[in-house]
Amino acid sequence: xxxxxxxxxxxxxxxxxxxxxxxxxxxxxxxxxxxxxxxxxxxxxxxxxxxxxxxxxxxxxxxxxxxxxxxxxxxxxxxxxxxxxxxxxxxxxxxxxxxxxxxxxxxxxxxxxxxxxxxxxxxxxxxxxxxxxxxxxxxxxxxxxxxxxxxxxxxxxxxxxxxxxxxxxxxxxxxxxxxxxxxxxxxxxxxxxxxxxxxxxxxxxxxxxxxxxxxxxxxxxxxxxxxxxxxxxxxxxxxxxxxxxxxxxxxxxxxxxxxxxxxxxxxxxxxxxxxxxxxxxxxxxxxxxxxxx
Length: 293
Hints:
There is one protein chain. β7 and β8 (194-198) form a beta hairpin. It contains 13 helices and 13 strands. It is globular. The protein is α/β, with parallel strands linked by helices. The chain has helices spanning 3-6, 19-29, 62-71, 85-90, 95-98, 102-107, 109-113, 121-134, 163-181, 204-214, 241-250, 267-277, 286-290, and strands at residues 10-14, 34-39, 53-57, 76-80, 138-140, 154-155, 187-191, 194-198, 221-224, 238-239, 254-258, 263-264, 280-284. α10 packs parallel to α11 and α11 packs parallel to α12 (267-277). It folds into two domains: 3-144, Rossmann fold (3-Layer(aba) Sandwich), CATH 3.40.50; 150-290, 3-Layer(aba) Sandwich (Cytidine Deaminase, domain 2), CATH 3.40.140.80. The relative contact order is 0.12.
């Protein structure tokens, strides 16, 4: 990281999970000033430890987020952490319950008012990116500051996939990629070369839980991929300890991810828990994928 970047504060819009914490820690380790817009009912309170400036705000207070960053001279912002899209948009009164501010209404006008545009993840997130760009703020990938979070290729656990699991990975990979290309979801579950569940608006954890109901015998594989045209600035596939814990409770025996495109949060703990649970983590390289794996 060059001195020019080091001298500028970096902003984080912090959602749910440990990924925002990992990005904030990486920035502080590089002596970077960190300004955080922490999302109410999403962000972990412990992120305060890594923030030079922090303000807690609603998810739909887009103008307030931007005002905070502009006040502190932030030119680059990381969107980090999960948002519970189903609960935000399809519970209660939807967008109305979020109490969007004027900038939010402007950014999402053709999604929430005219309904001209769809509500896919990429559509929602690009609306945010465009809103920030209009104010001279660039949205950047968190892995630009914490590249060590990206999975390396190989079998990451001592636990190795058996022949049946490997067949499920080979079978399911292209299907998962096709689902990603449609912006439906990033994950599918497979057993005996049959697709059990496809992630949609509910997210990966709920997809795993649903798989347990469909396949109480367990022994299934989770395949989690990036989209064919993945924008690293947002919505990168992410694996953490909760993913492993949920797989363990649900009877999963392996997870296949994409090397160089998947974020592993708390990597050492993820691998330790996976090995304790007898779950293999397989990280496929681009060459393996190109060769039909």
